[in-house]
């Protein structure tokens, strides 16, 4: 098991506590209050808000001076804003609300906007992914690595698909046109947390998505990096967690994937 710092221990505690609460809600979905955030396809429930309250409370007790950025509550300053907790209390809300088990809790720690530790917890699969800079990526106490593949034709990719209210639908169609004939398969789980963790574990060879937030991608960045993979923007440039897009891979298929994603932009 990873030799976790006190920060990482607090992150693990927060993710598991939030996940346990969400799992209880998952057993009685009919009772949840659900409303739209930014349109009919962008939903939030009391479960999301309770999970963020849980994570924020645990993290604040551990490091009260750190800043906090959460999907539901936004940004909260601390005395040491160079260090910020970044939390998505329920990544894959639509999956959750439609009784699909592919959803998770994301907790990351960023220093000067560089992710240095991350936890992704997928309660319904009993999968806890943790990583800290220089210490590898671990799944349920066992170290994991990205896949060894180097050819797109042998690779399975994952992606996010823009839904109602999101931009770039024509761009996504062009990406599919350029990629589907050159890969072994393309998957969409509906949860960025799951897809990025699965790249780290070697299940997918790469994942990309546009129109994301820092809390969607935060933990997955360091999970993949510490598993031996690569993380950039979808254009291949340096990763900015606030830029709204990400591409992570095993490293071997990164450049040809980026080449096709850039080609889709130019058409």
From TrEMBL:
Keywords: Hydrolase, Magnesium, Metal-binding
GO biological process: inositol metabolic process; signal transduction
Naturally occurring in which organism (per UniProt): Brevundimonas lenta
Family the entry assigns: Belongs to the inositol monophosphatase superfamily.
Coiled coil: none
List of residues binding Mg(2+) 2: 90
EC annotation from Swiss-Prot or TrEMBL: 3.1.3.25
Leading EC class: hydrolase
Listed name of the protein: Inositol-1-monophosphatase
Regions that span the bilayer: none
């Amino acid at each position: 098991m990873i030799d976790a710092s006190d920060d990482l221990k607090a992150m693990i505690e927060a993710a598991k506590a939030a996940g346990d609460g969400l799992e209880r809600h998952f057993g009685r979905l009919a009772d949840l209050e659900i409303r739209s955030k930014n349109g009919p396809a962008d939903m939030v429930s009391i479960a999301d808000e309770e999970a963020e309250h849980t994570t924020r409370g645990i993290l604040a007790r551990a490091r009260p001076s750190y800043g906090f950025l959460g999907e539901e509550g936004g940004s909260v300053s601390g005395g040491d804003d160079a260090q910020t907790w970044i939390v998505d209390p329920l990544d894959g809300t639509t999956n959750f609300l439609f009784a699909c088990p592919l959803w998770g809790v994301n907790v990351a720690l960023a220093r000067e906007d560089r992710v240095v530790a991350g936890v992704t917890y997928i309660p319904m699969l009993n999968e806890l992914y943790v990583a800290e800079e220089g210490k590898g990526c671990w799944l349920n106490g066992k170290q994991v690595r990205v896949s060894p593949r180097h050819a797109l034709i042998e690779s399975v990719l994952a992606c996010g698909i823009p839904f109602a209210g999101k931009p770039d639908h024509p761009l996504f169609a062009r990406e599919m046109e350029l990629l589907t004939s050159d890969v072994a398969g393309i998957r969409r789980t509906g949860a960025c947390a799951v897809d990025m963790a699965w790249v780290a574990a070697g299940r997918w060879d790469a994942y990309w998505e546009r129109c994301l937030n820092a809390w969607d991608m935060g933990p997955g960045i360091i999970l993949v990096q510490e598993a031996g993979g690569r993380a950039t923007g979808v254009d291949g440039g340096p990763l900015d967690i606030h830029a709204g897009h990400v591409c992570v891979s095993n490293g071997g298929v990164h450049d040809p994937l980026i080449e096709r994603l850039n080609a889709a932009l130019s058409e």
